[in-house]
Specification:
Blueprint (H helix, E strand, L loop, with lengths): L4 H20 L2 H9 L2 H11 L5 H14 L3 H9 L2 H8 L4 H12 L1
């Protein structure tokens, strides 16, 4: 069977989150990514999929890289509802919880 449009969108979102994660590993990119709307988009991914999904785990990992050492990005994540979504991941299995702890710990 062909994948549904929603599963294709989530697969694309997972790939995009991976790109953001890699770009955000460089502190010089963090502010530009926030300005471009990456934090809001990543939180939207967390809201759109199950907390234990690969897509949510990828989004949490990207958020972790975006907020590390960047108070402005931490505040933006909090304002966008990211903390609440990450907390939901804590009870969603080991891999999801690990990604959430990493993001929340930054």
């Amino acid at each position: 069977t062909e994948p549904s449009a929603s599963s294709e969108a989530l697969h694309a979102a997972e790939g995009a989150a991976g790109v953001v994660r890699n770009l955000a590993a460089s502190p010089t990119n963090q502010d530009a990514l926030r300005t471009a709307g990456a934090i809001k988009a990543l939180v939207a991914i967390l809201e759109a999929d199950h907390p234990a999904s690969r897509t949510s785990i990828a989004a949490a990992s990207a958020l972790s890289n975006l907020v590390v050492g960047n108070q402005t990005n931490k505040n933006a994540c909090r304002t966008a509802g990211g903390v609440e979504r990450l907390v939901l991941m804590l009870g969603a299995g080991h891999e999801a919880a690990s990604a959430a702890v990493e993001a929340l710990g930054e």
